[in-house]
Design goal:
The protein is 66% helix and 3% strand. With 389 residues, it is mostly helical. It has 3 domains: 124 residues, Rossmann fold, CATH 3.40.50; 72 residues, no CATH class; 109 residues. The strands form 2 sheets. A two-stranded parallel sheet has the order 1-2.
Length: 389
């Protein structure tokens, strides 16, 4: 029989250049370690293949590898392409302590201005409802404004998050619990709580069934498991309010007594008591304190406060941005956001801008961008004049 023709060999895999690598870490120490590992790997490869010209070239170019902390990478990239973002070419980066002190000063001025504003009734109602309630201090609310602003700066589109949050509150406050998006998520959370409680009860039954002398405890746990089945059936058949009623109407049996001399009594007692405590006052029971009507009433009462709070967050962002601009400074979140905007800029806009800047600068911008990312051209960072800064 004729032999099979020899299969063609696969084409060689393209070899990577160190200039194509982008290694980012959270700390300078980690960046140094990563660079050391790459150098060690190249040195070992060079020792085993001394005639490989490609490996020799990569070892010679090792100092040009892009290996740094994330913020150092962002800083370098923004300084190279400041013109594409309208940044001051001599911007400086605020250190963490300086930025923290600046934010604290701004948020205090913000609250002070709101107190003095002629149209401050809504703000005062917000403070009365959620303030610290001691000596007129608003430290907890100021911290919450700062924390929320920090969270928003980590989002690609913070304004969409704000608009959607307000819409969700409004929807949950006006539509039936089983119809609104937050209501359905809340019911899903309740079902998860029922499942967790069933799991813990079953595990306790299994554990105590293996021990001698604790059948009364096992029977009590089985009673609790049956109670849980009744609760779950109420939710499945009638809905959330039926579950709330079933939980409120439940009168639990007393824990049976077992002689202290029974071996393992202390650990067994702790186990069954912990399960019963979850049935009486655990997180699930706390979540079921309110009917759907009470749930909606609460949401309607906080809706205006949510608008006041988010307006404070946005106003803080504008003031913080203005102060940073006056200092010609960026903070760490600015480095990340501006870098994302730079890397996700559509190629058409880049080409249009290239025609308006000197040729050497245009060529350098294009080559740097292509070496960093090729997959980001289909992404666009949404920007808005109200975006927290």
């Amino acid at each position: 029989m004729p032999s099979n023709p020899q299969q063609p060999s696969s084409p060689p895999q393209p070899r990577c250049n160190v200039s194509n690598l982008l290694v980012v870490t959270f700390t300078e120490a980690a960046a140094s370690e990563m660079k050391s590992r790459i150098e060690s790997a190249l040195r070992q490869r060079l020792d085993s293949t001394p005639d490989d010209a490609h490996v020799r070239r990569q070892f010679a170019l090792l100092e040009h590898i892009h290996c740094s902390t994330l913020h150092s990478f962002c800083n370098r990239l923004l300084r190279q392409h400041f013109h594409r973002l309208g940044l001051d070419p001599n911007f400086r980066v605020l250190d963490a302590d300086e930025a923290s002190l600046l934010r604290l000063e701004i948020v205090r001025d913000l609250f002070s201005d709101r107190y003095d504003h002629e149209d401050s009734a809504a703000f005062h109602r917000f403070i009365d409802s959620f303030g610290d309630g001691r000596d007129g201090r608003d430290d907890s609310l100021m911290s919450l404004v700062l924390d929320t602003h920090a969270m928003l700066t980590s989002l690609v589109d913070p304004m969409t998050w704000i608009d959607r949050s307000l819409w969700r509150i409004s929807q949950a406050a006006t539509e039936p619990l089983e119809s609104s998006e937050p209501g359905l998520e809340y019911i899903t959370l309740i079902r998860s709580g029922l499942y967790d409680l069933d799991r813990d009860t079953s595990a306790a039954i299994t554990a105590l069934s293996r021990m001698t002398g604790f059948q009364p405890y096992v029977a009590h746990l089985q009673y609790l498991a049956q109670t849980l089945s009744t609760w779950t059936a109420a939710l499945d058949s009638t809905g959330y309010d039926a579950l709330v009623t079933a939980v409120r109407d439940t009168e639990f049996q007393r824990l049976p007594s077992i002689r202290n001399s029974t071996p393992g009594k202390e650990s067994a007692s702790q186990l069954v008591s912990s399960v019963q405590k979850q049935f009486k006052e655990g997180p699930l029971i706390q979540a079921l304190r309110f009917s759907s009507a009470e749930f909606q009433t609460g949401l309607r009462s906080i809706a205006p406060h949510a608008e006041v709070f988010l307006d404070l967050v946005l106003d803080f962002g504008r003031r913080y941005r203005k102060h940073k601009d006056s200092l010609r400074a960026l903070d760490f979140s600015d480095l990340e956001r501006f870098t994302l905007r730079l890397l996700s800029e559509p190629r058409s806009e880049i080409e249009n801008r290239k025609s308006k800047i000197p040729a050497p600068l245009s060529s350098h911008a294009s080559s740097t961008r292509n070496s960093i990312t090729s997959s980001s051209t289909n992404t666009r960072t949404s920007t808005n004049s109200r975006t927290p800064s």
